[in-house]
Amino acid sequence: MHLPYIRHHDRDDYLEERWFYEAMLETYLPLLETMERLDSEGVDFRITVSMTPTLLALLDDPLMQQRVLSHLDKLIRLAESEKLRLANDSGLLPLAHMYADKFKHYKQMFLASGMKLIPRFAALQATGKLEIMTSAATHAFLPLVKTEEGIRAQIATAVNDYVRHFGRRPRGIWLPECAYSIGVDRILRQYGIDYFICDSTAVEYATPRANRELYAPLLTPYGVSAFPRDPASSQQVWSSTDGYPGDFDYREYYRDIGWDLGWESEQAWNYIKPYVLPTNERVNTGIKYYRITSKGSYKEPYNPDWARNKAAMQADHFIACRQAEADHAYNFLDRTPLMLSPYDAELFGHWWYEGPVWIEELCRKLYYDQHSVKMITPSEYLAQYPLSDTGKINDSSWGRNSTAEVWLQNHNDWIYRHLHQAEERMIQLASAHADLAEETMLRQLTRRALNQAARELMLAQSSDWAFIMDAGTVVDYAVKRTKLHLNNFHQLCDAIDSDQLNPEWVAKLEAEHNCFPNIQFGDYIQIDAPTPVSLLSKERLQQVLKETEGKRNIFMLAWEYPPKNVGGLAKAVSELAQELARRGDDIVHVVTTSQYGAPYFEKAEGVYVHRVPVLHSGDTDFYHWTFEMNLAMTDHLVQWKEAGGRIDMLHAHDWMVYYTAREIKLSYHIPLIATIHATEWGRNGGALHSELQHNIHRLESGLCYEATKVIVCSKPMVEEVRHCFNLPEDKLALVPNGIDLHHAVPAVPKREDGKVIFYIGRLVFEKGVQVLIQALPQILHHVQDAKLIIAGSGPMEHTLRQQAAHLGDRVRFVGFIQDDEKAAWMARADVVAIPSLYEPFGLVALEAMRYKRPLVVSDTGGLAHIVEHGVQGFKALPGHVDSLAWHVTEMLLFPGNAVSMAENAYEKLVTEYQWDRQAERIRDIYEDAADRMYAAGNAN
Asked: Has the keyword Transferase been applied to this entry (predicted)?
């Protein structure tokens, strides 16, 4: 669903603004009504739509809402007049009544929601039946945006605007015009986008060739899923010759009374004149009385019943064709084939009047007739099949010849030199004001002007203007809009450069073009891609070298570190590093990867953090990305040494940093300690299947071999690592994870009604959430006011939601939560349940102990050693539904015992799992490793 930003603050008689009115009455309201009706009747449908930021801005604008209402009132008056004019025409009068009733109905529907449609779409998304994608901020054709900063600003603005409207981040994005170019996926991944829709040619000609052809998404080098459109289903609907909308029983789009009436006399013209443009230009009114009838000019009156019946027949035909296509694909696929059928939303209702009816018939037939073909959203598919083939997809679009031809040809190519010049100027200006932080009125005005300049540039970049120039429709308007926004942009930049901003003029531009209220000019700040040596300025480098003299310099290597928090590794490494730094005996460094918004180098909580950018190529998947990460880390440490820096001890965390650890160890004869947080063998249930799993296992083995000492976090991990890598007993050290008790526990918020069972963690099979949901009915039998709160995300989320659906509001999924939300839920929980089937350690258990929450854990892995059954909590048999239900129920029914066990658990936490104790053990390991290296050096 997309429209360009066609709001005109001064007048409402622009032809282009009518596009919005028509889309509202003919597409958005009918589609919304269709989906709400299906939902209210319990039809389990799935539809995915994109709602572009410019469309959201129009829908959310009170001025545009009021204009839509005025337009509706005008159409109601016209329809009532038509009923009088056609009083003696038995063929057309029923249609006049149909339109009058329809317009009144949509007015009532529009007013019932306070003229706000976005919350209603959001409510449908909350049911899981509708999935809403975002798009680039102004639907810019991204391959023709010159700089990475320009693309980043389009995506960042879109994501932030989506969060503002829907209260959640988007999972997917409709790339404008399905236009993809290499590297866009890296920016999408930075903003949490999981998938995008692309043209079939993007995957059809991917390298290597896609094994599953067009029947499954392809994972790009940066881990974003590309869903290709299915050509067969697209052709079936879109085709101008064979597509459904051309059926003779459907309403004829081109026979509108705005064009048909008023030619015979001045009186007739005066009748229709109030309903066309004030310039007397004829336009469509939306009242059309004829069906297509034939390919010629002969037309007969429209028959709604015939049209509805034909839509139902064609829904059956569409399903049968998809079934035949799926049957063919099953012959060579290893999974259920996916057929993705994308269309312009305005096809349904606007161009194809019966389109919403066809969609409704399709949804009902797929639900009630129990076809083997089912509807699914892209997110649901990724949850069902989280693993995909990886490939490098080619530059493409769904435009003419699958290229950029529509948006870059003789009639519109002149715009790009101006857009690119403006783009570069925006980057320079934003970068020059990167430190804009003072809150004086002058600085605030400069910030507003910079934000408005960003708006004007983005509005000039809209792909719609180039598209219109190619189509040859309202070319003057497209040219005018491009020049208007570029002119506003340069005037703003000139005023900022000369420090001559006029507050009234800035406010005027803000009022005229007021989309994206949270836009940030900082998204255009130049992306530094420094070589490792430039992470620190020369002056800062000399200062750090001086600060780190005279003490042992410990360098930890970890691919993630806050604010990059992908898994539990970042938390474990950061809390250990900060505790070692607090002791003051050593200088602690962490070498990690760069993260958007975080400085390349800083001293935080006493730790020197080196965030190294990974200058990876465009066709790199994660496994090979880690190799390039190691090259960048190695270069940085070599240059650190050459600048006079010390590296006295290396501590490598998991296999991802193996190459750097080995290279620096051997080059400078530095002792190496390794922590293995989990093994590939253990993560995959005690087996290695794929080539990737064997490669990771090989790197884990190599790291253990090179290390002087290998640290693991639990007794089961001691046995696992010894078994996997044939390590001698004296090479292994058991150091449990700890928890930071230096920060105060927040005050307990007001409790919810009922008993709260809280789970937090990844939603994957080995975490056992499915067992906990299965146990809940037994718990509810004894504790009727209990409710289960599930925090976290993962590939099993949809499956788990379906499993829990019959439990209604007794189960609530709250998604991925930040630390403050986690603290709040922990504090209000009556019991924390950790039903893991495999758990190397179980850090969540320590967090629950910190908040003195009663614990029920699985008797497996590290959890088995954290909790003593009946003393610090209960241990349930792994995967045993009854056992888990019994122990959770007992915790809830006997709160006195639960509180007592929680107190015991806290005491154990204080005595055994504080980071100061673990840091002391690790420091002893460092001392031993240093002594061994020294002894070996003397022996040689």
From this structure: yes
Query: What is the CATH number for 470?
Result: 1.20.1430.10
Task: Tell me: do 615 and 704 sit in the same domain.
Answer: yes
d(CA 145, CA 184): 11
Is 177 in the active site? Answer: yes
Q: Are 45 and 38 a contacting pair, CB within 8 Å?
A: yes
pTM for the model stands at 0.61
pLDDT band at 619 (very low <50, low <70, confident <90, very high): very low
Q: Tell me if 711 sits within 8 A of 735, measured CB to CB.
A: yes
Please, are residues 192 and 590 in contact by the beta-carbon 8 Å criterion? no
Verify that 774 and 673 share a domain, yes or no.
no
Residue 99 lies in a domain: yes
For the residues 628-644, what does the mean pLDDT come to? 89
**What pLDDT does 438 receive?**
44
Measured distance CA(674)–CA(351) in Å, rounded: 64
How far is Cα 180 from Cα 176, in angstroms, rounded to an integer?
9
Domain co-membership, 675 together with 813: no
Angle between helix 895-912 and 843-850 (nearest 10): 110
152 is in an annotated binding site: no
Integer Cα distance of 478 and 484 in angstroms? 10
**What SS3 class is residue 268?**
helix
In sequence order, the 6+-apart residues with CB closer than 8 A to the CB of 727 are 704, 710, 721
Last residue of a domain, one of 524, 546, 578: 524
Specify whether 771 is located in the same domain as 874.
yes
Average pLDDT score over residue span 116-140? 95
Residue 465 CA to residue 4 CA, distance in Å, equals 9
Instruction: Give the 3-state secondary structure of residue 812.
Output: strand
Phi and psi (nearest 5°) for 98? -60, -45
Q: Is residue 854 part of a domain?
A: yes
Number of C-beta neighbours around residue 164 at 10 A: 14
The CATH number for 874's domain is 3.40.50.2000
Same-domain pairing of 671 and 596: yes
229 is in an annotated binding site: yes
Highest mean pLDDT among 94-98, 199-203, 273-277, 749-753: 94-98
Give the type of residue at 192: G
120 annotated ligand-binding residue? no
| Same domain? 517 vs 542 | no
- Model confidence pLDDT, tens digit, residues 42-81: 999 999 999 999 999 999 999 999 999 999 999 999 999 9
Q: Is 794 annotated as a binding residue?
A: no
The type of residue at 759 is Y
Residue among 652, 653, 656 at smallest CA distance from 696: 656
Is 252 in contact with 288 (CB distance < 8 Å)? Answer: yes
Question: Does the structure show a pLDDT above 60 at 531?
Answer: no
Domain that holds residue 82: 61-115
Instruction: Please tell me the predicted confidence (pLDDT) of residue 60.
Output: 94
Which of the pair, 138 or 440, is modelled with greater confidence?
138
In this predicted structure, the answer to whether residue 277 has a pLDDT above a threshold of 90 is no
* Catalytic-labelled residue, pool 242, 281, 344, 528: 344
* Number of domains present in the structure of the chain: 5
What is the C-alpha to C-alpha distance for residues 810 and 790, in angstroms, rounded to an integer? 11
Task: Using the predicted structure, report yes or no on whether residue 701 has a pLDDT greater than 80.
Answer: yes
According to DSSP, the β-strands at 649-653 and 672-675 are: parallel
195: in domain: no
In a domain, 168, yes or no: no
Active site residue 361: no
H-run or E-run covering 24: none
Name every residue whose Cβ is closer than 8 Å to that of residue 103 and which is 6 or more positions away in sequence: 25, 72, 75, 76, 79
Span 366-381, pLDDT tens digits = 988 878 889 999 999 9
Over range 721-742, report the average pLDDT. 85
In angstroms, rounded to a whole number, what is the distance separating the alpha carbons of residues 646 and 554? 9
- The catalytic position among 177, 249, 456, 654 is 177
Q: Is the CA virtual torsion 388, 389, 390, 392 positive or negative?
A: negative
Do 654 and 788 lie in a common domain? Answer: no
Q: Residue 296's pLDDT band (boundaries 50, 70, 90)? A: confident
